[in-house]
Amino acid sequence: MYIPDIYKNHNQAEIEGFLKNNSFGILVNQTNGRLWATHIPLELEHKNGKAFLCGHISKENPQWEGFTDNNQVLAVFSGPHAYISSSWYDHENVPTWNYIAVHVYGKVKIVDEKTTIAMLKQLVDKYESNSENPVRIENLSKKTMLQARGIVGFEIEIESIEATRKMSQNRNEKNYNTIIEKLSETKTDNGVAVAEEMRRCPIHK
Questions:
Q1: What one-character DSSP code corresponds to residue 7?
Q2: Within 10 Å of residue 70's Cβ, how many Cβ atoms?
Q3: Nearest-angstrom CA–CA distance, 69 and 67
Q4: Which end of the chain is more exposed for a tag (fewer CB within 10 A), N or C?
């Protein structure tokens, strides 16, 4: 992805934190001569000194059939984003958009049923952690778990990551703070989230 230098994020810890907190991504590959994309959770893991994304898709989804023919895949993750009106500046300019995005490139490999079940357990445990009556994979009946035969588990060995954090870094302190104020006033989820992100890592201290 094209990223101007001013918006490139090289902070590995911050990028990994983003992937863990925004794990619902888009998996892109080429299957049967055409591009395919699926919206799925992809969980970041580390083992043997390497980083992986782990996930699963339905066997009815033809995307997985392309994993063996061409194991190169792209996973796209998005964070908060918001329209930035140039009317908020103290000078004439064009409107723009603030956003966070991460592109992960790697090699995909299908895993066995045992590993797939372990991935499912880890995924469910993560998202059930705050539930009043948390579901546990190990407590589900054999009949219910038969549904796991209808999915394909996989892991993506990460080869490279491109991360952009476009948060009005090209604005002076006055305009930067005005953007935060105006975004907060929108009272939209994305607008407020972008404002909070700009406050979290201010470019003017």
A1: G
A2: 12
A3: 6
A4: C
